[in-house]
């Protein structure tokens, strides 16, 4: 079920009514309703894959209880590795089986051996990368004794399958989200209105910015050899805004929807394109995933401690695995490696934490130096996005070669004026709200009520005027 669909527009009010009116003041019934609603939400795509979520839920719930009872370290490690192998085993099979098979066959062909191995027609379950990491965080934190295992199977099932963030995050830690299922929740009007406001902005990002940019991006990336360098640059820039609008838009809708039901999810995007270096960008982009890799992989590997060689190794491991998490394609691996190359000079010169504050936090405009830094960081990020968007390495290299030639300084063949105007408005509103959790969190709150309502109505009208047909979210494929 898509957030930007009529189905969800009908589904959400029904669940909201049942949750606050029918199951009011009964915590266990509310949690049970969330589980059932989440299974309906997920099963809307393919009900057969519900069995994976149920199995993963039962495995990690059982392992959590067993870890609490077991004091012998060797047995505790065995239980943890059972959780890791089961969860990553499913993820590896559905997402990476054919990738490894193809590369295995290619490797043998270099030695003159041709292998006739049948590929499997595997359908990737929507959201498997997200809920897999979410359940793993529970098992790891229970193992580390940072979290008491739950004995409430319904609360745990609700945590694993919570429908607002089930298929594309944010990837919530059990330490943050699970305890919220134990606490009686009361409807708060201000919180619900804030949630609706964030949903509105998320829909604007997705349906106006991302989907309209997609039309240009698809045209340019499908036949990169047919366009000048300036048009290819435009296509890459539009993809940068497409993926940001698409993914952060999903996160906004997910967080806003959660707030309607009394839950608080962590911020997943913090205006990353206003970053002044790559380190800051990665503190602001897909925060739930980058911090997951930091806490459960990078730090256990040694992090920034140890010799320079080990630090370089750890950085490349974390970025390459992050790239591979996104998909079974060499383009994602190169994208991850390229970001590691961007990041390493900052880390090795101890400048990776130079920008912990919000840019121009005490002024309306950035300094000239900050502006150039943001522009340079956006440029590096956009080049890396070319590999992320390309279908394969051949297309990525073709795109890069076409980009960097004399035609880069020509007039683009495609001049989407309407989208450019929308993008400028979007960037301006994002800039005004850069100190908040989302762009319009406080925008207009001090205006007179008619003016504030007029602003919201204008946003709604723009969504209806510029929205395309229902389009899936990019991160559903991951």
Helix coverage percent: 55-70%
Give the structural class. Answer: mainly alpha
Sheet-strand content, in percent, reads: under 5%
Write down the overall geometry. Answer: globular
Task: Output the helix-strand order.
Answer: HHHHHHHHHHHHHHHHH
Weakly predicted, low-confidence segments: none
Roughly how many Å is the radius of gyration?
Answer: 23 Å
What is the residue-mean pLDDT, rounded to a whole number? 90
| E-strand count | 0
Question: First CA to last CA: what distance?
Answer: 16 Å
Largest sheet: none
What's the helix count? 17
Summed up, the domain count is 2
Give a topology summary.
Layout: H1 6-22, H2 27-46, H3 50-69, H4 73-109, H5 128-143, H6 153-161, H7 174-177, H8 189-222, H9 229-260, H10 278-284, H11 287-301, H12 308-326, H13 330-348, H14 368-389, H15 393-403, H16 417-432, H17 449-466
Helix pairs in contact: 1-2, 2-6, 3-4, 3-5, 3-6, 4-5, 8-9, 8-16, 8-17, 9-14, 11-12, 12-13, 13-14, 14-15
Question: What does this protein structure show overall?
Answer:
The protein folds into two domains: 6-187, no CATH class; 190-276 and 355-477, no CATH class. It contains 17 helices and no strands. α3 (50-69) crosses α6 (153-161) and α13 runs antiparallel to α14. The chain is mainly α and 478 residues long. The chain starts with 5 loop residues before the first helix and ends in a 12-residue tail after the last helix. Helices cover 66% and strands 0% of the residues. It has helices spanning 6-22, 27-46, 50-69, 73-109, 128-143, 153-161, 174-177, 189-222, 229-260, 278-284, 287-301, 308-326, 330-348, 368-389, 393-403, 417-432, 449-466. The model has no long low-confidence stretch (mean pLDDT 90). It is globular.
């Amino acid at each position: 079920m898509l957030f930007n669909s009529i189905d969800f527009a009908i589904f959400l009010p029904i669940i909201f009514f049942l949750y606050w009116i029918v199951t009011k003041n009964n915590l266990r019934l509310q949690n049970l309703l969330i589980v059932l609603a989440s299974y309906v939400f997920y099963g809307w795509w393919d009900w057969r894959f519900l069995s994976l979520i149920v199995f993963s839920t039962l495995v990690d719930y059982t392992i959590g209880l067993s870890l609490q009872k077991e004091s012998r370290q060797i047995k505790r490690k065995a239980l943890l590795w059972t959780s890791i192998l089961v969860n990553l085993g499913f993820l590896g099979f559905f997402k990476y089986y054919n990738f490894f098979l193809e590369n295995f066959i290619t490797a043998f062909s270099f030695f003159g051996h041709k292998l006739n191995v049948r590929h499997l027609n595997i359908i990737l379950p929507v959201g498997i990368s997200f809920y897999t990491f979410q359940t793993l965080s529970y098992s790891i934190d229970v193992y580390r004794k940072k979290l008491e295992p739950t004995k409430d199977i319904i609360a745990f099932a609700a945590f694993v399958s919570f429908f607002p963030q089930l298929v594309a995050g944010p990837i919530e830690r059990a330490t943050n989200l699970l305890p919220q299922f134990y606490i009686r929740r009361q409807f708060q009007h201000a919180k619900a209105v804030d949630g609706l406001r964030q949903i509105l902005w998320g829909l604007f990002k997705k349906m106006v910015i991302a989907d309209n940019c997609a039309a240009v991006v698809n045209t340019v990336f499908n036949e990169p050899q047919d366009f000048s360098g300036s048009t290819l640059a435009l296509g890459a820039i539009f993809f940068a805004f497409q993926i940001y609008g698409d993914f952060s838009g999903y996160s906004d809708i997910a967080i806003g929807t959660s707030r309607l039901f009394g839950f608080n999810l962590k911020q997943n995007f913090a205006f990353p394109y206003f970053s002044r270096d790559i380190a800051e960008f990665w503190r602001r982009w897909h925060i739930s995933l980058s911090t997951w890799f930091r806490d459960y992989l990078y730090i256990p590997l040694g992090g920034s401690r140890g010799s320079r060689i080990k630090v370089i190794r750890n950085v490349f491991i974390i970025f390459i695995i992050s790239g591979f998490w996104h998909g079974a394609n060499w383009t994602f691996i190169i994208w991850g490696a390229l970001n590691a190359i961007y990041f390493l000079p900052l880390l090795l010169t101890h400048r990776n934490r130079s920008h912990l504050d919000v840019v121009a936090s005490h002024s309306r405009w950035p300094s000239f130096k900050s502006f150039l830094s943001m522009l340079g960081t956006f440029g590096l990020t956009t080049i890396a996005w070319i590999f992320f968007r390309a279908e394969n390495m051949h297309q990525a290299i073709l795109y890069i070669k076409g980009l960097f030639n004399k035609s880069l300084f020509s007039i683009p063949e495609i001049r989407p004026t309407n989208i450019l105007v929308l993008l400028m408005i979007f960037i301006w509103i994002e800039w005004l709200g850069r100190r908040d959790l989302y762009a319009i969190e406080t925008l207009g709150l001090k205006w007179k009520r008619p003016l504030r309502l007029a602003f919201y109505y204008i946003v709604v009208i723009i969504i209806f005027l510029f929205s395309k047909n229902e389009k899936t979210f990019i991160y559903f494929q991951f």
